[in-house]
């Protein structure tokens, strides 16, 4: 209640109680006080009807926009508008009626129509007799405050909505341990009743929560540590006893200036994520395992290696005590082919197991089914027959998974996963893994069988091929051998023929020479005597004629008959011609002897020119004008004696000269036939009109003698040039040529004398052979 008002003239307060009715002037005059006030102040006369305003201060004018003149005498309600809360107005009305103080906030309007929030306090002013004479209203414009409040409320509501929408449970705890904020998700996650949270006590919250945590002490100490170290943020995972996993995130709630208002604890249920993650991990691991085994299957064709890898990897993956592959025998007993055993458990590889279970046709037909897996979590709880349990006990098996391995349509064996340490609830994923693996192994077995078959076929084929190659090689060897033998045979034949030719010709020549020689000696020795005798006889006839000029008629007749005068004249001529003949015969014999050289089979020095002349002499009959009219042009160089086999070299000359004569005798027809575009430079004028043989000898720069024998005969056609030295190659009619001449010559020159035999021929024009014999 306002009891005192300022007395502006005196500057002192006057006692309102002392006056009956306070005069207005002194109340309003002290502009210094009221004018300086920041609140609007208005005074209404309680005694007048409708309580008109009697005074307002400058702050009122400033707030409302009305001047004092405009408001004095009016009721204050003009400040109200359509939006002014009627309940609040009623509240004022009530207070005024009951002469009570009232404090309200209501919407008012300024003169310009803009609204403002008015925090209004109205108090009655009483006189000394306690009668209300005035009401004083104090107004504060709280529009901006109200706005800020409104905004704060809005943002608070937003925050709350956000918090509630958050999938995480959030709690904010002040440094003093008071819960400042939390959302309903938190209560739900931690199973805390909302009532308890309302108590806002951290300790109570912890008491409720800690029993749910798997390791409460660890978590608790972390909470404490964080409370002691406000700036720290922390992230962690909390394992709950019921299996859930929460991710914890704690961070200090700091103001912009760094003041710490508390700590935010945010919890996220990551159980499902963790499970999915775990499952994915497991799945990835399983895929890795399967792909590893698959890779093995593809890389290795060694079945044993694949099976060993499979059991090893499966045991690692499933973390069981034993994995094995059991292979069926035809009588449905089976053997453990490969296994992987954990430490401390019995090894059973190689054991033959007779399990009656597999003798049951129903079981077998089940096993044929694709994807069938026998799952036993505990042998004592699986309805097994006592003897089956006994068998498994013997093998230390407590739980197992059995999957069939098929080979095509046949049951090949089993993939068995065993737990020995105790019963085990097999997980779906594990069962699935074993199932997939058993299919893979079926494939591997199929592949291995195929490989075995293929490699067996391959081996067979390789063996056949090797045998074929061997026999082929043998055949080739034989053919080569035969070829060689044939070649050798030809050579031998050639040599034989040559020897034969040589020796028979030599013998013939020698025989003839010998036979001729005797009569020639005989004739030659007697020619002189015959000459002497004839002269003596002629002298005697002459003396008779002198002494008997008239001979008897018988003598005269005979003298005329024999033409004695001609006889006398001719006889000496005849005898001398005989002498000439004998001389020629003697030369011929010498030549024959020289040619045959039977006595000279060894190397000897030979006069090439003489050898050639002798050969020509033997061939005289073929060169005579009546035979061929061949001209022989000789050009002998000065040669040293040549160390050689003279008889053989003469043979060469004879072969070459014979061929030249043959070529010259073959006629123009043959020459025209042979004529080709190819023309070799020959060292002789083969265009000569008459059939000619040129013989030239010379010393070469390479320390050898060269014997050229050329002819302007038919020449050698291009296509047979390569063959002319082959034994038995001839172009001559059957019976005329043996085809041995050049091959023998070649052998004599090249093999025997280490020389060369060259042939140049211009087909249709002529041929030149060059014999080159090295000088030693
Ligand atoms: C001293 C005094 C000051 C007042 N100031 C205001 C004011 O600032 N704003 C307002 O809306 N009402 C104000 N009122 C209230 C109104 O004048 C009026 O009493 C109210 O509207 C209730 O009366 P009604 O039902 O006749 O309108 C004031 C009243 C008194 C006595
Ligand atoms: N001077 C030549 N001119 C043309 N052709 C020739 C000449 N010399 C050899 N020949 C060809 O070479 C072939 C082989 O000659 P080679 O002397 O070896 O055997 P041939 O003369 O046929 O028989 P053979 O000499 O045994 O009586 C001849 O048949 C002939 O066709
Ligand atoms: Mg010949």
UniProtKB/TrEMBL annotation:
Residues 302-440 form the Phytochrome chromophore attachment site domain. SMART domains: GAF, HATPase_c, HisKA, PAC, PAS. It is an enzyme of class 2 (transferase). Residues 31-99 form the PAS domain. In the N-terminal section; belongs to the phytochrome family. Signal peptide: none annotated. It comes from Coleofasciculus chthonoplastes PCC 7420. GO terms for molecular function: phosphorelay sensor kinase activity. This is histidine kinase. Residues 511-776 form the Histidine kinase domain. The lineage of its organism: Bacteria, Bacillati, Cyanobacteriota, Cyanophyceae, Coleofasciculales.
């Amino acid at each position: 209640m306002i009891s005192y008002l300022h007395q502006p003239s005196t500057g002192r307060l006057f006692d309102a109680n002392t006056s009956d009715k306070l005069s207005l002037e002194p109340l309003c005059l002290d502009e210094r006080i009221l004018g300086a006030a920041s609140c609007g102040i208005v005074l209404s006369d309680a005694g007048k009807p409708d309580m008109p305003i009697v005074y307002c201060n400058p702050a009122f004018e400033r707030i409302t926009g009305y001047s004092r003149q405009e408001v004095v005498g009016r009721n204050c309600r003009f400040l109200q508008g359509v939006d002014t809360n009627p309940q609040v107005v009623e509240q004022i009305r009530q207070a005024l009626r009951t002469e009570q103080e009232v404090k309200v906030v209501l919407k008012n309007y300024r003169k310009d129509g803009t609204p403002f929030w008015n925090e209004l306090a109205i108090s009655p002013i009483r006189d000394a007799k306690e009668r209300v004479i005035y009401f004083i209203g104090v107004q504060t414009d709280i529009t901006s405050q109200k706005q800020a409040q409104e905004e704060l409320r809005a943002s608070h509501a937003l925050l709350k909505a956000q918090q509630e929408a958050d999938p995480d449970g959030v709690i904010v705890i002040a440094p003093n341990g008071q819960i400042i904020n939390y959302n309903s998700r938190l209560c739900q996650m931690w199973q805390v009743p909302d009532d308890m949270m309302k108590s806002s006590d951290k300790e109570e919250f912890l008491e409720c929560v800690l029993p749910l945590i798997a390791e409460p002490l660890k978590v608790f100490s972390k909470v404490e540590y964080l409370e002691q170290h406000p700036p720290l943020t922390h992230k962690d995972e909390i394992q709950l006893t019921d299996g859930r996993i929460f991710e914890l995130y704690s961070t200090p709630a700091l103001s912009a200036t760094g003041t710490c208002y508390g700590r935010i604890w945010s919890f996220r249920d990551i159980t499902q994520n963790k499970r999915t993650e775990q499952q994915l991990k497991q799945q990835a691991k399983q895929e890795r395992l399967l792909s590893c085994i698959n890779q093995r299957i593809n890389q290795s064709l060694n079945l044993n290696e694949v099976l060993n890898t499979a059991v090893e990897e499966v045991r690692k993956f499933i973390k069981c005590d034993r994995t094995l592959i059991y292979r069926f025998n035809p009588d449905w007993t089976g053997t453990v082919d490969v296994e992987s055993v954990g430490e401390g458990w019995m090894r059973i590889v190689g054991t033959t197991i007779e399990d009656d279970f597999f003798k049951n046709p129903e079981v077998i037909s089940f096993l044929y089914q694709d994807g069938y897996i026998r799952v036993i979590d505990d042998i004592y709880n699986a309805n097994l027959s006592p003897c089956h349990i006994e068998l498994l006990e013997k093998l230390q098996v407590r739980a197992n998974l059995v999957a069939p391995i098929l080979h095509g349509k046949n049951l090949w064996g089993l993939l068995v996963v065993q737990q020995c340490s105790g019963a085990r609830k097999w997980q779906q994923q594990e069962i699935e893994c074993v199932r997939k693996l058993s299919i893979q192994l079926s494939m591997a077995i199929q592949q291995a069988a195929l490989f075995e078959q293929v490699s067996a076929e391959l081996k067979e084929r390789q063996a056949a091929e090797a045998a074929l190659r061997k026999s082929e090689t043998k055949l080739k060897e034989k053919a080569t051998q035969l070829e060689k033998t044939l070649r050798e045979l030809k050579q031998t034949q050639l040599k034989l023929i040559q020897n034969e030719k040589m020796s028979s010709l030599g013998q013939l020549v020698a025989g003839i020479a010998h036979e001729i020689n005797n009569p020639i000696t005989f004739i030659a020795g007697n020619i002189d005597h015959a000459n002497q005798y004839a002269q003596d006889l002629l002298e005697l006839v002459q003396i008779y004629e002198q002494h008997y000029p008239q001979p008897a008629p018988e003598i005269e007749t005979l003298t005329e008959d024999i033409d004695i005068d001609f006889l006398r004249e001719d006889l000496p001529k005849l005898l001398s011609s005989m002498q000439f003949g004998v001389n020629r015969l003697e030369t011929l014999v010498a030549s024959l002897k020289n040619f045959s050289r039977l006595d000279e089979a060894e190397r000897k020095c030979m006069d090439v020119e003489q050898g050639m002349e002798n050969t020509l002499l033997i061939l005289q009959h073929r060169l005579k004008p009546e035979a061929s009219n061949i001209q022989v042009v000789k050009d002998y160089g000065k040669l040293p004696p040549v160390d050689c086999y003279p008889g053989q070299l003469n043979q060469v000359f004879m072969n070459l000269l014979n061929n030249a004569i043959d070529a010259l005798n073959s006629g123009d027809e043959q020459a025209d036939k042979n004529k080709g575009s190819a023309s070799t430079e020959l060292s002789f004028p083969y265009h000569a009109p008459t059939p000619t043989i040129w013989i030239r000898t010379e010393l070469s720069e390479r320390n050898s003698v060269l014997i050229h024998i050329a002819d302007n005969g038919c020449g050698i056609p291009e296509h047979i040039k390569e063959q002319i030295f082959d034994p038995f190659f001839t172009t001559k009619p059957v019976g005329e040529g043996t085809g041995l001449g050049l091959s023998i010559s070649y052998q004599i020159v090249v093999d025997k004398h280490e020389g060369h035999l060259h042939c140049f021929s211009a087909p249709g024009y002529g041929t030149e052979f060059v014999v080159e014999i090295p000088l030693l």
